[in-house]
């Protein structure tokens, strides 16, 4: 049975700007929002948009991501015909190669897409936090009789040169594409979310692969080639929540916005658009008699006897008596011992912060989510020794000895 539209999620990126958080972890597998991983958002969007066939293209450090996705059951994607499929690079008759670019990654999986004979293919990023109805995007694509559509958001003109920009007419038809221009003609930034007619995409992927000078990239090669040939290309205006969490500060900021859904636009309590995730299997959290918790999210399996303010604790985090956690993102399995101070930082999974240690510091002038400034970061499995200090600019990926300072 042919599918009307299938989704292909690009999830092979290294996420190098997240430094210590992605040394052993693919960026889409980075924890987010208390109980989720970044990949949960495009997967949940697909299910909520009635897309039941999803290919996930993995490459860098895929072990945790592959294990987490499993058979797709948490997202109702454990299907006999369709469902979720993890698609790493593989050896072919013509040889083997890593995915060389976003377009090449899809090209190497043409046979997978052909199995479902779709009319449309939606290309998604596996490393963005976004709540979007792809069925509404598809309706737009059909109404315009488009061959290619891209989701765009208006950004401040002062920031436009940081993005790939779509120049459009009054009917949203794309007339020009600018890749991070010095002098932008538009402030419609591409979200990196595309819908193609499959016959058009297949044709241009094949031509792009045959070009020895191509970088095999959608933004640098495929989209300009579509424009060159005068294809029917349209920009779909998206007005919901979308954030590229490609840096430490943007990841911290997005987590803090979860704590203020009425203003930020990201509401994880929305019953009409649930974000699904794999259950940690941990028991309920326990809040001790001496605990103080203000405006925070405390996940299952946490044990809190200290003070937690404006923070997110992932499953299994322990905050001992006398410890203080403020404006922090603390990932699963981390232990914060008595008297420790953890502020304005991201702490990865399975970290131990010993008694009296200090990680991060609140910015001078108080907390400012809009301008997060320097956010301290501790990588997974690290031990911060007794009385050690990790400064607000520090990025720690190996153990810190007792009393040692990291700045």
TrEMBL record:
Protein name, UniProt field: Glucose-1-phosphate adenylyltransferase
Gene this chain is encoded by: glgC
Function text: Involved in the biosynthesis of ADP-glucose, a building block required for the elongation reactions to produce glycogen. Catalyzes the reaction between ATP and alpha-D-glucose 1-phosphate (G1P) to produce pyrophosphate and ADP-Glc.
Pfam families: Hexapep_GlmU (PF24894), NTP_transferase (PF00483)
Superkingdom classification of source: Bacteria
Residue(s) at site: Could play a key role in the communication between the regulatory and the substrate sites: 59, 98
Residues covered by the Glucose-1-phosphate adenylyltransferase/Bifunctional protein GlmU-like C-terminal hexapeptide domain: 288-363
Organism: Subdoligranulum variabile DSM 15176
EC numbers on record: 2.7.7.27
Quaternary organization: Homotetramer.
Top EC class for this record: transferase
Alphabetized UniProt keyword annotations: ATP-binding, Carbohydrate metabolism, Glycogen biosynthesis, Glycogen metabolism, Nucleotide-binding, Nucleotidyltransferase, Transferase
Pathway of action: Glycan biosynthesis; glycogen biosynthesis
